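Now for our target.
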Amino acid sequence: MSSHAFYPIGTPGQPWGEAELAAWRAQRVKLRSYADDVLRVIEPLRETFDVVEYGTLDYGAEHYPLLAIRSRDWRDELPVLLVTGGVHGYETSGVFGALQFVQRHGLDYAGRANLLVVPCVSPWAYERINRWNPNALDPNRNFRSNSPAGESAALMDLLEPLREDVLMHIDLHETTDSDESEFRPALAARDGKAFEPGEVPDGFYLVDDADHPQPAFQQAVIEAVAKVTHIADADARGEIIGSPLLLPGVIKFPVKQWSLCAGITNARYATTTEVYPDSPRATPQQCNDAQVAAVRAAIDYVLAQRDV
């Protein structure tokens, strides 16, 4: 696709107004059910975990309760370990991986850590397999004070009392072919800019915090995930999505400066996973398993450091 490719909504070179936003929203069709895929899966977890509703989103006639899963044996002296998924609703393994982790391994850390898992931050986008919320806002660029994105604001309110208590935060994402075919072209059109095509990495990688890098932590996660699925190689420039490699499968972003979810607390250990579900070398279940492997490796590393 050339840099002059035209997105079907808007006028090239002109940012969207209300008419373009309405046209974009009208084309977003509900394709799956948050109630069936997420809320129904969470329900039986109430037997062994505390489930809290930390906010609601009301978009027209649609009402979305926002749920977080907490360790039942929460103790103030234990470290808080945070897992988030579904910040971008179309990144499916982030949602399913977070739920699978709680179902299969959540009780493994009882008495050693306080787990807080938010499996689907953006339910409207989850249902429409989309990146943005209905106002064409990317929640993962809006984790900031007075956020205009309800998804981001609600999660920030939940975590504000815990900002200094969270020791580890792992945010589960995907990089998909639709990033290049739909979402980045839409972003360029929305902002009245030319679309400059990029390259989608084939494989799993991590995004470290540029301001507080933790290379040994990132390496431990990469090594665990490599047993489940393949790790992305650098492109011809030695980069992944425009960023130089810090070590194999790891790049860095200024997460707080960019208002990303991984910067929402002051966690010493923070990372963002990126799975590639469109790879011919990976199945959907492998993608879910990779997310779970990443979460477990992150937690195991952090707890081991505390025990030293």
About this structure: DSSP finds eight helices and ten strands in the chain. Residues 187 and 193 are 8 Å apart (CA to CA).
